[in-house]
Write the structure tokens for this entry.
Amino acid sequence: MKKVVTEREIIEFARSGGKIFPLAKGMLITPLAQDRIKSLGITVTTGEEAKSLRQNKKPDFSIIALGCDHTGFKVKQMIIKYLKEIGCTVNDTGTYNEEPANYPEFASKVARLVQKGEADVGILIDATGIPSAITANKYKGIRAATCYNEFSVRSAREHNDANILVVGAVTLGEGTIKGLVELFLNVEFLAGRHKTRLEIIEKIESEQFCNS
């Protein structure tokens, strides 16, 4: 049986931030869905064409600071290759091999670069994605988010304006991590009520720094 794409599916796709709808072989689009696609300005294309468009799309951020411990070294090399392919400038803070390394050192380097505005955003890799986020979030103005799927990345960017993505090299596969990096670089902060909440966080942060 052929898969039918309904108007509801298109609306949900648009709400999630989708712009390029991948149409698999054999899919049928209802007339109402076609009208909704047109009104929302969504591009419908085959899976391979969508992949090509994503690969050629210039990301919203162009200067990326990267850091990892020894467990994330191989993944970091993969991310560097991907970022250069899409035209990003990469600031690799280390580590540069698989010898045991201390994650706080590299998380701190990335956090400082983002804090000073010398990098648009940062990416950190350790075994689980947890300790590097804890370290980076000690720096004022840093919003490091440990992400493990597309929903967590989208929420981190849309709702929290996260400026450092943290992933676990042991807990996630390379393909998944690459997809999360791609999404992180292209999802925009929604502002609105989310901005109000961030302002509350910033106030708390400022009070803590003043009292320290």
